Description:
By secondary structure, the chain is α+β, with helices and mostly antiparallel strands. Helix content is 24%, strand content 37%. It has a five-stranded mixed beta sheet with strand order 1-2-3-6-7. Strands 11-12-13-14 form a four-stranded antiparallel beta sheet.
Amino acid sequence: MNNQDVDIGVAGERMVEQYLQTIFNGETIKETMRGEGVGALDFQFKFRKSFDPNSYFQVAVQVKTGNSFGEWTPSKNRFRLQNIKNKHLEKWKLSNQPILLIWVRPTESRLELYWKLITRKTPLETLSVSKNHLLTPASRPEIERLLEIQATGAGTIAKITTHNFETTPEIREWSSKKFAKIKETHIGCLGKVRISNYIWRHLTRVTRPQSHIRDSLTVLPHIKNFLSIPPHQIQTTRTIDCNVNGVRFIKQKILAIYRDIRFSDKEIATVYIRLDEKIEYSEDWKENNLYGFKYHHDVKAESIFRKLSKK
């Protein structure tokens, strides 16, 4: 009798391929057989953009399987990734392609897959992932945003000329006319973002200081210009994550930060745009289903404001 030993690394790669193909409805292309080559990559993954059906993303994938590749750090509330060969890190640093690093973590009850997107700008001295970086259908929007930002490259905004009004009613009337022309679903570096009355109501709520209302309404007509270029920094904070009748419901706040923006009424300022993101998907998404799984994703603009940059 011949017994076939299970290679945990091969099993991890197969699981990652299955997860990615199911979540993104994409295709994988094997780089090498396990143990061959020196490319420090396992396979290529190509999938259609959710916000632009005529375009594709392609990302290199490296899989690490086993508990030895990660350690929980209570003080940081994150997993620190470790035991990755230095020659792999060097090859990733020199690559002109983003790398999706997937860590397959075995636990007593299940396997957990965590993801980390690595680009030329990623500090490789210390790699870590949070518990929110589990590879699930909720990962797709964030991975797509990061890939689009990476692919787009740096952008600039010319000096913004504002109004000469001083009172809230005057600025409100001026901003309202301009806002009516930009209410739509905008496609840019952060994907599809709905610009609707939701952001107007949020910015003009009665509990908000009048000075903040005037300042936000001054910059609001230019929101599409900002959403069209990569932010200097992006932060995603999960506020709700629950299961309701077999459906996973996730709500997140996305903060996009744009630095060194020039305005005619102020000196250089930093502009902050906050987006409200909702994701719903069926918990049985991993089950073999010819018809896929239920998935809903929506992003809408919630707030925009600016702060005078420190000299």
